[in-house]
Design a protein that fits this description.
It is a single chain. With 169 residues, the chain is mainly β. It has three helices and 14 strands. It has a single domain, classed as Electron Transport, Fmn-binding Protein, Chain A (Pnp Oxidase, Chain A), CATH 2.30.110.10. The protein has a seven-stranded antiparallel β-sheet. It comes from Streptomyces misionensis. InterPro entries: Flavin_Rdtase-like_dom, NADH-dep_flavin_reductase, Split_barrel_FMN-bd.
Length: 169
């Protein structure tokens, strides 16, 4: 670490600097799903962003080393699910490497275009992928909204300081 007058201490760019900085950033928790050649795939994402209202478009990042990447790389459509504060375990399941993400504990159904749609979420969308943009060891996926349901009840699940948490009043 180095000190600069008026700026305090600082670190040179590194993966640890980025991780440490973003642990301080509270993010909403989503699960991205797709139909893969060997069955449904999915992962927990905190990088979900609204990109455009006209046309309605979202983006998210996915690591090219992630087990879900091969299916996302080939998929035409994906599901986006906004998790509620009651869904800590679901978020952890989809974040855990090697987990049976679509096993008996996960309530889901096949939706539009064969996309896996999770039950009991705050909101879900089915989107058509329009681009996969290289970004370091990730790809930024841009997807246009096809249909969805924003009417789930409850408050959002958040990710902060390396753990799932909820809003406080």
């Amino acid at each position: 670490m180095t000190a600069l007058p008026g700026l305090g201490t600082h670190q040179l760019a590194s993966p640890d600097l980025l991780r440490s900085t973003f642990r301080r950033h509270a993010a909403g928790v989503a699960v991205i799903t797709a139909r893969g050649a060997a069955g449904p795939v999915g992962f927990t994402a905190t990088s979900l962003t609204s990109v455009s209202a006209e046309p309605p478009m979202i983006s998210f990042g996915v690591g090219t080393g992630a087990s879900s990447w091969p299916a996302i790389a080939e998929a035409e459509h994906i599901g986006v699910h906004i998790l509620g504060e009651h869904q800590h375990e679901l978020a952890a399941t989809f974040a855990r490497s090697g987990a049976d993400r679509f096993g008996a504990a996960t309530a889901w159904r096949e939706g539009h275009e064969g996309v896996p749609v999770l039950d009991d979420v705050l909101a879900w969308l089915v989107c058509r992928i329009v681009a996969r943009v290289p970004a370091g060891d990730h790809r930024i996926v841009l997807a246009e909204v096809v249909l969805g349901d924003p009417t789930g009840a409850g408050r959002p699940l958040l990710y902060h300081q390396g753990r799932f948490t909820a809003l406080r009043d």
